From TrEMBL:
It comes from the Bacteria. Residues 2-59 form the HTH lysR-type domain. Gene3D superfamilies: Periplasmic binding protein-like II, Winged helix-like DNA-binding domain superfamily/Winged helix DNA-binding domain. Pfam families: HTH_1, LysR_substrate. PANTHER family: LYSR SUBSTRATE-BINDING, TRANSCRIPTIONAL DUAL REGULATOR HCAR-RELATED. Belongs to the LysR transcriptional regulatory family. This is LysR family transcriptional regulator. Keywords: DNA-binding, Transcription, Transcription regulation.
Amino acid sequence: MLDVRRLRLLCDLSRLGTIAAVAQAHTYTPSAVSQQLSALEREAGVALLERTGRRVTFTTAGRILVQHAEVVLTALEQTTAALAALATGLSGPLRIGAFPTAVRTLLPAALVALGRRHPELELTVTELDPVTVPDALRERRLDVGLLHDYDVVPIEPDPVLDTVPLLDETVFLAVPGTAPAAEETGPLRDVRDAAWIMASPGTLCHTVTLHVCRSAGFTPRARHHADDFAAVLALVAAEQGVSLVPQLAAAQPPAGVRLIPLSIRRRTHIAYRQGAATHPAIAAFVSAIRASTGAFLGR
């Protein structure tokens, strides 16, 4: 019989590439991960990995087992969801991951509604950049998460996660109120020489800003880096530069900021592991966050 925990380690090795990365993800030592994978090979009765020094590569059998293991793990999620549906009332932990703007605007009302309807649920929120949410779900550090991408920088779907759409919003160019009026046909070209307020390198927002500006024919000159949109808008109001801001963060801009709508869209999805859609706690969260999103947007 193949051990499920070891199958998860094998799948994580396929995704992360090194035993050291798997160990870090699970807070194990590399030696412990190697021992577990060796035990899995004994259970399987075939070599799953080829070891050359510190490097490991998958054998044909290893690659086949990873494919089947993903199916097994999805089936286990479905089984857990089916059993949870038989319970009377919702209880236990529900670990939620979301990006800062959603934590500030959409999540509070959803958490209040969930707490009232299901007081036995143990709700925990972790603020994360969307690019880190898929790994956190895979590694079971989260049960459900909010992630987003932009139509100009789409992200390939994760093969072991399911998503449902939550929000599609306009992206604005935020400029100081004292700035000359921009041409509607090319507002980005009018700020090519401006200082920019950008997110931290490595974040999705930083990548999107670089892509958008380079597509308009220039590379933005970053003066400040800030990941919180409230801080970004405050800096714009102080005439420290210009920035890209999504609709969710621009609902109540400070005085001294002018917002110019662009054709760019930011798309937010609710994500969870495949097979978990029918879990009552996941379904309850999806319903609550959709209701709070509609209320926030006045729908």
